[in-house]
Amino acid sequence: xxxxxxxHATVAARNSTGLPGQLDCxxxxxxxxxxxxxxxxxxxxxxLTSA
Length: 51
Fold this sequence. Notes:
Elements: E1 6-12, H1 19-23, E2 26-32, E3 38-45
Antiparallel strand pairs: 1-3, 2-3
């Protein structure tokens, strides 16, 4: 187990409809691409747990 506190991902904006709610992640920002498309950066933050 990696025990990561945050996991970051990128997804094409056109494919991300409803993604934050489905995966319990937050939209961080949009990244414009050279071809005019947009890539969305999202982050999932795990709750702190005691060991």
